[in-house]
Each structure stands twice: as C-alpha cells, then as structure tokens.
Design goal:
Elements: E1 8-10, E2 13-14, E3 17-18, E4 25-27, H1 34-38, E5 51-55, E6 61-67, E7 80-85, E8 88-92
Antiparallel strand pairs: 1-4, 2-3, 5-6, 6-7, 7-8
C-alpha cells in the first residue's frame, strides 16, 4: 500500500449513541464506487487529513474529505477533496467548476 495515502471511516450513531445506527463505512482510494473508488492511492495523498460535514436542505448528511497531497496530472500536491453523500462520492479540486482559484503544484487544496 502507498505510505500516507490515507483513508477515513464513518461511524453512525442513533438515539442510543455511537454505533447504534447503520453499519460503519470504510473509504479508501481504489476501493468501492464513485470518485473514491476510481482514484488511485498514491504516497502522500493524505486523504482524510481534513473533514467538514453537514446536512442538506432535506436533512441528509454529507461529508467533505480533504486529500491535500493529491497530484493532479503533473501538478504534485495540488490537492483535492471528495464530497460524499449517501453512496455517491465526487472528486473536486481547484480546476472544478464553481471552485475559486486554479490548481497549482504544492497548493495542498483540501
């Protein structure tokens, strides 16, 4: 496995506390579906180094997971993030629509 590629787990809770909700979920690049499943784990990606979470207007949970060491083509450590909502994961970076700035080497976005 790639050193410091990163991963993250989601542990769900319920009215009786942590672990009383749905089964936990494990995410790592190259495993599963969506953008996370199609991404290659690379040394130093550091997926999971930063997290933000919330709920949609409909009350559904989402999480944004940073991968600040992610390379974008020849741009080393440009960085990226994965938006996870239900079974969907979407990759975003500074070259994505509606994201300010432009991807550059060593930006460490995410």
């Amino acid at each position: 496995s790639a050193v410091d590629a990163g991963f993250f787990d989601i542990l769900f809770g319920g009215k009786d506390g942590l672990g009383s909700g749905p089964a936990s979920r494990h995410f790592e690049q190259g495993s599963g579906n969506g953008s996370i499943g199609s991404a290659a784990p690379e040394t130093g990606d550091r997926m999971g180094a930063s997290l933000a979470a919330g709920t949609t207007a409909a009350g559904e949970p989402w999480i944004l997971v940073g991968a600040p060491g992610e390379a974008l083509g020849s741009l080393t450590k440009a960085g990226g993030a994965f938006y996870v909502h239900g079974d969907t994961s979407i990759s975003i970076n500074q070259d994505s629509s509606n994201v300010p700035g432009a991807a550059e080497a060593n930006d460490a976005f995410g």
